[in-house]
Design brief:
Elements lengths: L7 E6 L26 H10 L3 E6 L5 H15 L4 E4 L6 H20 L26 E11 L13 E11 L5 E2 L3 E8 L2 E8 L9 H25 L10 E6 L5 E6 L22 H8 L1
Parallel strand pairs: 1-2, 2-3
Antiparallel strand pairs: 4-5, 4-9, 5-7, 6-7, 7-8, 8-10, 9-10
Helix pairs in contact: 1-2
């Protein structure tokens, strides 16, 4: 059982589980919890260890508190969350299950094609409170900032490498990440009074905490920027795309490397992934750039 890479648990519920911590003023014959002694931490730990994506179909709002509590536990275990979908009618069930499975398969395929596929990954709980940017709650760190630059043109991509300029800095860094992606954790940081996002690989492989590994990732970003500029030069249309400048930073005390970029507030839409998946719900020039590249 659970032998495939893509694993989904689709949970449908119209009422919260036993235990007063999981509901507000609901009738509960077992307010102390499950009568069989089942513990939610143990159950969800089992899911995370098997890399099972947990979807919950919400029928009404009586389960909101329960899912909030479940998400807190998942977050503390590996930084993940319960994925909630709204089930408005029985006719919607088939489509919801299908889309949930499709999303999980796409994510699994994306991870399998990445350079960290098959690697052991660290699991760190996520704490979004660091996005309050309270400098007094962050750790002051001495670090070396490496600014990346590519001096060549599109014809030089194959043969020329990026250049790094070095600068000693002091940065304030949150102790826990505020978000988790498929292969990286994102941390809040403050440098020279400005907000930054520092991203660290989740891999336990020592190679994935080296300057060479991070430089290659940053180089990919710089080359993508060059290709995007060329794309718009060819089309001559009134559209553009801005690439965030990504640099490299090493914390002196721990020796750990992070990529570092400017913090951009707002909601984000994922247009594509490593597996070739595309979000075509809304037209985006990013789709054209992807095929051009």
């Amino acid at each position: 059982m659970w032998s495939n890479m893509s694993r989904v648990l689709f949970h449908i519920g119209d009422a919260p589980c036993h235990g007063k911590q999981f509901h507000i003023d609901a009738q509960d014959s077992y307010p102390s919890g499950d009568p069989r002694g089942l513990k939610i931490t143990d159950l969800l730990k089992n899911l995370t260890e098997k890399n099972i994506s947990y979807y919950f179909a919400e029928i009404n709002k009586s389960t909101v508190k329960m899912i909030d509590e479940f998400t807190k536990v998942l977050n503390s275990l590996d930084g993940s969350r319960v994925k909630v979908v709204n089930l408005n009618s029985a006719e919607d069930l088939s489509e919801l299950v299908s889309s949930s499975v499709s999303s999980t398969i796409t994510d699994s395929k994306s991870q399998s094609l990445h350079c960290l596929a098959g690697k052991s990954l660290k699991k760190i709980s996520v704490d979004r409170s660091s996005l309050a940017w309270k400098i007094e709650k962050m750790k002051q760190c001495r670090a070396t900032l490496y600014r990346a630059k590519f001096n060549g043109e599109i014809d030089d991509i194959k043969d020329q490498r990026i250049q790094l300029t070095e600068q000693k800095v002091v940065i304030y860094l949150a102790e826990k990440p505020f978000a988790k992606g498929a292969i990286r954790y994102a941390y809040a940081g403050i440098l020279n009074g400005s907000k930054f996002v520092l991203k660290k690989t989740a891999s336990l492989d020592p190679y994935h905490n080296t300057m060479k590994f991070y430089t290659e990732m940053i180089e990919t970003q710089l080359i993508a920027k060059i290709l995007a500029t060329k794309y718009f030069d060819i089309l001559k249309i009134d559209k553009n795309i801005k690439f965030v400048d990504v640099n490299l930073i090493q914390i002196e005390e721990t020796g750990e490397y992070y990529s570092i970029e400017e913090f951009i507030p707002g909601e984000f839409v994922k247009w594509m992934n490593n597996a070739g998946g595309l979000n075509e719900d809304i037209y985006s020039c990013a789709l054209g750039i992807r095929f051009f590249n």
